[in-house]
Design a protein that fits this description.
Layout lengths: L8 E6 L6 E8 L1 H6 L4 E5 L6 E5 L4 E2 L3 H12 L1
Antiparallel strand pairs: 1-2, 1-5, 3-4
């Protein structure tokens, strides 16, 4: 069985105290992320110095050069 996986990207959250990005160190793709939306993620936040407990669905995938290229191509089609 071969799984087709989209581009991998860093999962990024927003610090609830400062509004700044927290890079989680988790790399995933949109398909995989859709299967773990309720998964709790505990992150130390370098912005405010606290540990935040968030759900995976609260994060977003960081844009990669490949994603920008695909979006640009889709916009032209």
């Amino acid at each position: 069985m071969v799984l087709k996986v989209g581009p991998m990207s860093a999962l990024v959250f927003t610090c609830p105290s400062t509004g700044r990005d927290i890079i989680s160190g988790i790399n995933t793709d949109l398909e995989s992320l859709s299967h773990v939306q309720q998964l709790p993620v505990s992150l130390f936040c370098p912005n405010c110095g606290k540990v935040h407990r968030l759900a995976a669905k609260d994060g977003r995938l960081a844009e990669t050069p490949l994603m920008r290229k695909q979006a640009s191509h889709s916009a032209r089609v």
